[in-house]
Amino acid sequence: MRTLETDPRQPTPHPANCTDKVGIILDVETTGLDPNKNEVIELAMLAFRYDTVDEITGVSGIFQSFHQPSTSIPAEVTKLTGITDAMVAGEVAGAAFL
Predict the structure, then answer these.
(1) Any bridge partners for residue 42, and if so which?
(2) C-alpha distance from residue 12 to each of 7, 27, 48 (Å)
């Protein structure tokens, strides 16, 4: 995939009569790999537009949210993701998040 030339943290205007396609990059961070016991701690999405030759033409939307798990984040997960208990403390995502 090609990189964006503009700052991806800010959505760019959608041009009138634009026929671009939309793609979504989804990033999910969890407290581990077992879906029966581990929990989602972060969800991030970036919607982007791309043209018929697969050139990225802009960013349509950005979403990022933390969620405090019911137990402490394991040290190996913090080492891998950089997400700490302090970062997710008090963060509660609604049903739409999960």
Answers:
(1) 29, 66
(2) 9, 21, 9
Distance CA 77, CA 73 (A): 7
C-alpha span between 78 and 76 (Å, rounded): 5
pLDDT level of residue 4 (50, 70, 90 thresholds): very low
Tokens at residue 32, please? 């581990």
C-alpha closest to that of 19 among 59, 46, 51, 48: 51
Q: Which amino acid is at 2?
A: R
Q: Express each pLDDT in 29-63 by its tens digit.
A: 999 999 999 999 999 999 999 988 998 888 888 88
Supply the pTM of this predicted model: 0.75
pLDDT digits (tens, 9 = 90+) for 71-97: 999 999 999 999 999 999 999 876 555
Closest CA to 26 of 65, 70, 74, 73: 65
DSSP state of 90: T
| Among candidate residues 5, 85, 2, the one with its CA nearest the CA of residue 39 | 85
